[in-house]
UniProtKB/TrEMBL annotation:
SUPFAM superfamilies, alphabetized: S-adenosyl-L-methionine-dependent methyltransferases (SSF53335)
Enzyme class: transferase
Record protein name field: Class I SAM-dependent methyltransferase
Domain of life: Bacteria
GO MF, one annotated term: methyltransferase activity
Ranges for domain Methyltransferase: 40-135
Coiled-coil annotated residue ranges, if any: none
Keywords: Methyltransferase, Transferase
C-alpha cells in the first residue's frame, strides 16, 4: 500500500514532528491567516501540528486525513487542550464538504503525496470548488533539489515505555520523466532487543517545477499567484531554499 501512514508510521511522525514543533511554517500560516473571517480547511491534517496552533489563535479550522491513525493523535491533543476537533477521514481526490472555505492550506509538502499529474490537477480543481469567492489556497512544496539527497538513512526514537522505534528510508527508484520517487520506509519497534512489530510503506512523492505548478493553478482558474521561498512572503524562491509556498486566490 502506498503512503498509508499506519500505526508505526504515525507514531514515528508524532514523535518526530509533535505539536509545538515548527519549521517556520506555524508562524507563517498564522501570519498569512491573520484576519481570516471564515472557515479554514487543512487537508492531510496529520497529527495537528499546524491545526492546533491555528485553533489556539482563534481560527475556525477543520481538517481531514486519509490515515485514521494520524487522526487519532490529532483528536487526542485537541481533546487534551479543549479544542474543537472537526476532523474526518477523507482523501485528497474524494473529499467533500457542503460548505465553502475562506482558505485552504496544505503545509509541509503534503500535496506531493499525489503523484499522478491528472489526479493532482483534479485535486487542485476540488480545492477551487471548495473555496468561497475571494478565498485563498496556500500550499507548500519541497523544491526539486530536495529529492536528490542521500539514497538511504536510518533514524531512531525512544518511546515513553522504554522501546525503540527505528525508520530505515531507502530510495529505490527515481523517475525523472514522471518526476516521482519511490522509497521503501521500514518501521520497526524493538523492546529489550527483540523486534515486536514492523511495517513497510512504499512511499511515493512527486516534485513540481515552480513554473509548472504556477501554470497548474492558473489553468484551474486561480489568480494573484504569489510564490515565496523559505516562508518569506513575496520573496521569490532561490536555489537552496528548503520550501516553496504558493498562495493563490479564487475569484469566484
Amino acid at each position: 500500500m502506498h503512503n498509508r501512514y499506519g500505526k508505526l508510521a504515525s507514531w514515528v511522525y508524532d514523535l518526530d514532528k509533535p505539536v509545538g514543533r515548527s519549521f517556520g511554517d506555524v508562524e507563517y500560516y498564522l501570519q498569512r491567516l491573520a484576519g481570516c473571517d471564515g472557515p479554514v480547511l487543512e487537508p492531510a491534517v496529520g497529527n495537528g501540528r499546524i491545526l492546533v496552533p491555528l485553533l489556539e489563535a482563534g481560527l475556525a479550522v477543520e481538517g481531514f486525513d486519509a490515515s485514521e491513525e494520524m487522526l487519532f493523535y490529532c483528536r487526542q491533543i485537541c481533546g487534551a487542550r479543549h479544542l474543537p476537533a472537526n476532523l474526518t477521514r477523507q482523501t485528497f481526490d474524494t473529499f467533500s464538504y457542503d460548505k465553502r472555505f475562506a482558505a485552504i492550506i496544505v503545509p509541509a509538502g503534503s500535496f506531493q503525496l499525489v503523484t499522478d499529474v491528472g489526479t493532482a490537477r483534479a485535486v487542485i480543481a476540488r480545492f477551487r470548488d471548495h473555496l468561497q469567492p475571494g478565498g485563498r489556497l496556500i500550499l507548500d512544496l519541497d523544491p526539486a533539489g530536495a529529492f536528490g539527497g542521500p539514497a538511504m538513512s536510518v533514524r531512531s526514537w525512544e518511546t515513553d515505555d522504554g522501546g525503540l522505534l527505528t525508520l530505515t528510508d531507502q530510495r529505490v527508484e527515481t523517475d525523472h520523466v514522471a518526476q516521482v520517487t519511490l522509497s521503501h520506509l521500514r518501521y520497526e519497534l524493538w523492546r529489550e532487543g527483540r523486534l515486536v512489530d514492523t511495517e513497510l510503506d512504499l512511499f511515493r512523492l512527486r516534485w513540481w517545477g515552480v513554473t509548472e505548478f504556477g501554470l497548474a493553478l492558473e489553468a484551474a482558474g486561480f489568480t494573484d499567484v504569489t510564490v515565496s521561498g523559505n516562508y518569506a512572503f513575496g520573496r521569490a524562491p532561490r536555489d537552496g531554499d528548503n520550501i516553496i509556498t504558493f498562495e493563490a486566490r479564487w475569484p469566484g
